[in-house]
Fold:
Amino acid sequence: MRVNVQGSKLRVGRTASGFLVQVEGWGTLRESPALQEFAVQSLDDPRGPSTVVVDLSHCDYLDSTFLGCLVSLHRKYNRTLPHRFQVAASCDQCQKLLAPTHLNHLLDVTEVCPEPISDVVELSGPILPTADLGRHVMECHRRLAELGGSQEESFRLIADQLARELGEAPGGGDPPTDQYEIPSRRSIGPDQGEPQAGLQ
Structure:
């Protein structure tokens, strides 16, 4: 049963090698900007390499924007070994949240979630202007469209519509790269994510 979206939150704590981000309730376009901002700041920290693990053990719903955000972070930080960005999920959670879009074959998924070594506190998300939120949603859907599959056209149409609304050229963004594994173009199944309206 899905919890009320108003009860959804991200919590973060330190681990021995970096940070743990716990997703409680839903992971949607409301939460994904906070995840992206925190992960990028943590993983780009000049003080040294660290890891970020996203814990889905208390999550029961991910929309397509959040899934695209996971793909974007995987693509940016897992080009070389050892991987620095992981998703922690049990087999059941993996089947429920990631398998419908076959991202369980792309993302670095582990069943072993690191224990926090500090208090876990709620992560406050950035207050994004409408245009910045639209650009975030657009880029997340571009990342999903690049993976191909049966929903490629749907994801691309959402990204292109948002690009037009933002005054940008449809089909832009970073080109696909062969530096990270892309599942079979037939493998991405129907999205279980957000309503197709994009921004609401």
Notes: Residues 175-200 have pLDDT under 50 and may be disordered.
